[in-house]
Design a protein that fits this description.
CATH class of the largest domain: Alpha Beta
Largest sheet: 5 strands, mixed
Structural class: alpha+beta
Helix content: 25-40%
Order of helices and strands: EEEEHHEEEEEEEHEEEHHH
CATH architecture of the largest domain: 2-Layer Sandwich
CATH topology of the largest domain: Zincin-like
Distance between the termini: 30 Å
Oligomer: single chain
Strand content: 25-35%
Length: 264
């Protein structure tokens, strides 16, 4: 398991363009991984003894991907509007409305021994700073004070919980139709991928699938399930996808157009 780490800020000039990035060297890490985070910052995550020169080489070798990922992340930063009362949040084929409130009395919230919050609202959960709960089509966030002005972490945590609860159940009937069964389903917070399938049979799904229209979410589920039969993108793979969704190409185009435009 990765352990101690050190971060080094670096710059690289390529054809007159300057790329700022951070080299994260981690004890125990075996592979190099490029990441562009949600704030459009490039990171090179590498083994402990990885040199700055080697990091620059990796960035140059993957320059096309880096440019595209930075461009998408930058667009997402510009489009990411603040979450305020009345913000519309999509969830599959539903639309929720965000409602932000400040707790009027401290006794509204009772922290339990795990630091979470017990609340007399079904499905409510949160932290010592506040809680979140759905009431019909209203997603209500209640915080303890006016200084708690960052509902995004609570909202994202709620969506992730809903993804863990709903995506495996949504995937199950497609798995039966295809005659496959994943060994494990993992819900993650990827920024550049909707999902993935490993050779060990593990399917990883991005919780942001909950922000997509239901038909696009289902397409991703089927896409990853088909990888349990064909790990590549061969003709056999696409034929299997097409057997479930004949319009898969149109769905791919719609997914591409939504990159960087999600509310969360």
């Amino acid at each position: 398991m990765p352990g101690r780490s050190i971060a080094t800020a670096l710059e690289l000039d390529v054809g007159g363009d300057t790329f700022g990035y951070t080299l994260h060297r981690v004890v125990g890490r075996k592979h190099v991984h490029l990441v562009v985070d949600e704030d459009a910052r490039l990171q090179v995550r590498a083994p402990w003894r990885f040199s700055c020169e080697s990091a620059a080489e990796v960035v140059i070798e993957n320059l096309l991907w880096v440019r595209g990922a930075l461009e998408r992340a930058t667009r997402a930063c510009v489009r990411r509007a603040p979450l305020v009362s009345g913000t519309a949040l999509p969830m599959l084929d539903e639309e929720l409305r965000l409602e932000l409130r400040v707790a009027a009395q401290m006794d509204l919230l009772t922290p339990n021994d795990r630091g979470r919050v017990t609340r007399r609202v079904r499905d409510a959960f949160g932290t010592r700073e506040g809680w979140i709960a759905r009431r019909g089509n209203v997603l209500q966030v209640v915080s303890l004070s006016l200084t708690h002005a960052a509902p995004r972490p609570l909202v994202e945590a709620w969506y992730r919980r809903e993804a863990k609860r709903r995506l495996p159940a949504r995937l199950a009937p497609y798995a039966r139709t295809l005659g496959v069964e994943p060994k494990r389903i993992s819900i993650r917070a990827q920024r550049t991928r909707w999902g993935s399938c490993s050779s060990q049979g593990t399917i990883c799904l991005n919780w942001r699938l909950m922000l997509l229209p239901a038909d696009l979410c289902d397409y991703i589920l089927v896409h990853e399930l088909c990888h349990l039969r064909h790990l590549d993108h061969s003709k056999k793979f696409w034929a299997l996808v097409e057997s479930i969704f004949p319009d898969y190409a149109e769905r791919e185009d719609r997914l591409e157009s939504m990159q960087g435009s999600l509310a969360l």
